[in-house]
Amino acid sequence: MTLLDIKNLSVDFPSRDKIFKAVSNASLTVQAGEIHGLVGESGAGKSTIGAAIMGLIERPGYISGGEITFKEELTSGLDADAMRELRGKKISMIFQDPLTSLNPLLTVGDQLIETIQTHLGFNKKQALARAHELLVRVGIHDADARLDQYPHQFSGGMRQRVVIALALCSEPDVIVADEPTTALDVAVQAQILELIRDLTIERQVGVILITHDMGVIADTTDRVTVMYMGEVVETGTTEEIMGRPQHEYTKSLISAVPRPQIKLRRFSQVSYGGRDTRFAIEELVRNWPQSNNDPNKPLLSVSNITKKFPLARSIIPSRSTWLTAVDDVSFDIMPGEVFGVVGESGSGKSTVARMISGLYQLNGGQVTFDGNIVSDPSDKEAQARFRREIQMIFQDPYSSLNPRMRVADIIAEPIRHHKTMSGSDVKYRVHELLEQVGLGAAVEKKYPHEFSGGQRQRISIARALATQPRFLICDEPTSALDVSIQAQILNILKDLQEHLGLTMLFISHDLPVVRQMCDRVAVMQKGKVLELQDTESLFANPKTNYTRELLDLMPHLKGLSEEGLEVL
Amino acid sequence: MVLLIVGFVAFSMFNFVGDPIDNLLGQERTLEDVERLRAQLGLDKPFFVQYWAFISNAMEGNFGMSYRQGRPVAEIIAERAPATLELALVSAVFALVLGVMLGIFTAIKRDGFIANFIMTTSLVGVSLPTFLIGILLIYIFSVELGWLPSFGRGEVVDIGFWSTGFLTSSGRLSLILPAITLGLFQMTLIMRLVRSEMLEVLRQDYIRFARARGLSEKSINFRHALKNTLVPVITVTGLQLGSIIAFAIITETVFQWPGVGLLFINAVQFVDIPVMAAYLMLISVMFVTINLLVDILYVAIDPRLRS
Predict the structure, then answer these.
(1) Which of B213, B301, B304 sits opposite A115 (nearest CB)?
(2) Among partner residues B205, B212, B302, which is closest to A54 by beta-carbon distance?
(3) CA A115 and chain centroid, separation
(4) Do A115 and B224 lie within an 8 Å CB cutoff?
């Protein structure tokens, strides 16, 4: 049965001088008991379709054309009260971030009971019983105690379960899930997706799953609609679209997805729409100082480092409680190597990066770079020398660039800090770097907010290269980016490693990406390194159960088209 | 701790306001008289001894004798305090109730004509100094219209040690103008704060999710949004209520309100050190108490602070 039918939907956002068409002429249908994936990169208009279905388009946006039919009744153009009647009752929504989608000041039970009472007209006792039932159904077992708790007492995955329970309160026919697992760990993501799958079949609801993640689409959905710049480019069963994409955009998008099974030499770029920008590696090579690394000695070695964070301080030292974020970790990184660290959130992988770069002081152990101990805070000279040699690229290109500084100043800052060049040389160097990362010297006067995520990450790379370091620490450098942009940035990093001989510490939770990027990988769990192997042998023969579990949880991307890939 | 420091600062200041002896004794004084009085009042002792004597007496509720009136300071303050506290209470209620209500209103109807009008007029409240507002109100409502009294408390009724103006109609009428004068600034401040916080909260995901669940606007605005708005508002409001009592001085002067503020102004003129010291201590006790209440309220509202 067709639950939801969207025909030629257009959504416009008028601004002062022009109209931005967020969605134009989009059509799709959702059947009972099926998950319909809506995939596309940021700005493709997929969330706007979700909002349009809910009647929650933010002002000044409005539906400028087409219609939405729910169970053969027209819903677009209903007034606010009628729409509220529909919302929640017939159509529910699940949001991306379970951290922010629950009211922090009300107990979970209160929020559930309120929603149940609004829609089903139950009295308090019946509503409580129903709330309990729902929590149990979404996999929260000690529901009695949990009902009286506040959202902050739940973990991320548990919170998303609560959000799903809230969406189920009114027994809806259609659920719009907007990036429901993007903010979650791989293991939790798999559980939540399984829950959504089960509920879809059990309750015969129609689900629209909005995501940018091809892995989620391939493993979870029945049908897919691919969107690009507000338009539907292709729609069909998941098998068809993933295995035999017809449209050029779909093809290039699929080819940019990092594969878990095979290692590629380079990512193929998403060439559709001419968004590919050149990265001038040859020019960069010309001016780069020759490295005189001894290839047989580790460039960076970390021995027995430990970091503890205080949970509760007490005057009596023995009564303070500590969280050991990094526990006795050791590894060596050879020159020119890309060394991966993987693990779930809270495993201590980012802490390791910060300890190496000197952002955190060590509670034990030492870090050696090029034969010198660099983790001794009293040896200022060794630390200053070391800091010139290493640079970091952070995860979030939005918060890692100072929004009040111009691009030129952002890039020049590390050079000026280390006082290695005169003023005019700095200016020249900044221009050069901007040209090399493909942004062009003309952007130097702009501010970070004028750039897209991918361009910002290029600025971060230019900044990291400014002092001509020998070692780069990349902390989840692409996890905030779209898959096509991710392919570009990862290719740049591959170039840097290949042509400049840069050594890298690559931190990620994304195993397919790690497989493409790293020579050796350390798997971390609860602050300890569980195993350390060559990438290929790790993926082929994991030594520990934990690694095997992580590998099993990866999206399998079976039947994904392999057109246009450079397999190694 | 805070009280000790305030006491110390207040006390060290008194060395610079003038010599009380000059005021206490008339023109025809002898050097002997001066010395005798100085010894009697303990003013010949070193600073720290004086400070210590003051603190230890204050602990027992003994703030000494007023130089000017020759009566115990505690008694004078107890006599004047009801006037100030009643005024502060009324204007605090006025500021809070109206401020929060208007704040919510202007946030929900953020582009409406009335909301814009309120926002514009509220600028007046923020930018005009208190004494000017007081004088303007007196001019309009007392001089021109003759509706409300321009000074004093009107008739008061004594209930035990407390003298209240709430029970007589002239007492209630006299309260209106000073309460508005004192509360107007706080009211506009609270209103603007509530509005901006509320707008921020209404953009949050949990509000969008509440909408997506089909909850009523009433529940979203007043149950989900308001509570989240209050957390930051309480901090500022707490401090502001403290300053209502502290800055009642100006309003009391304008309206000749017989409260502790007016008492303090008079004490300054006559270098009545015990009165000034007691007043400052009293104000700091109030600030400390209000801050404590704010912290307790925080925990009551925000469950995240309870663990």
Answers:
(1) B213
(2) B212
(3) 31
(4) no
The tens-digit pLDDT sequence of chain A (568 residues) is 788 888 888 988 888 878 888 888 888 889 989 999 999 887 788 888 988 888 888 878 888 888 888 887 777 767 777 777 777 778 888 887 777 888 888 889 999 998 888 888 888 889 999 999 888 888 888 888 888 888 888 888 888 889 988 888 888 889 999 888 877 777 788 888 888 999 899 889 999 999 888 888 888 899 999 998 888 999 999 888 888 888 888 888 888 888 877 777 777 766 665 555 667 777 777 777 777 777 788 889 999 999 988 877 766 767 777 888 888 999 999 998 999 999 888 788 888 998 998 888 888 888 998 888 888 888 888 888 888 889 999 887 778 888 888 988 998 888 888 777 777 888 888 888 888 888 888 888 888 888 888 888 889 988 998 888 889 999 988 877 888 888 888 888 888 888 888 899 999 888 888 988 999 999 999 889 999 999 989 988 899 999 998 888 887 776 777 766 766 6
Q: Give chain A positions within 8 Å (CB) of B213.
A: 87-88, 92-93, 115, 118, 166-167, 169-170
Q: Note whether B213 contacts A167, CB cutoff 8 Å.
A: yes
- Indicate yes or no: CB of A153 within 8 angstroms of CB of B227: no
| Domain ranges, residue A526 | 281-406+453-553
Whether A549 is in a domain gets the answer: yes
Q: Which chain A residue's Cα is nearest to B307? A: A153
Euclidean distance between CA atoms A11 and B211, whole angstroms: 20
Q: Is residue A90 part of a domain?
A: no
Distance between start and end Cα atoms, chain A: 46
Domain with CATH 1.10.3720.10 in chain B: 73-305
- For A273, A282, A455, A488, the CA distances from A277, given in Å and listed in that order, are 12, 15, 10, 8
A119/B contact by beta carbon, under 8 A? yes
**Count: domains in chain A:** 1
Per the CB < 8 Å rule, is B215 touching A118? yes
- Distance from the A170 Cα atom to the nearest Cα atom in chain B, whole angstroms: 8
**ipTM score of the complex?**
0.71
Crossing angle of helices B113-127 and B169-202, rounded to 10°: 120
Distance CA A507, CA A348 (A): 10
Topology of B73-305 in CATH? MetI-like fold (1.10.3720)
CATH number at residue A499: 3.40.50.300
Residue position matching structure tokens 């103008």: B177
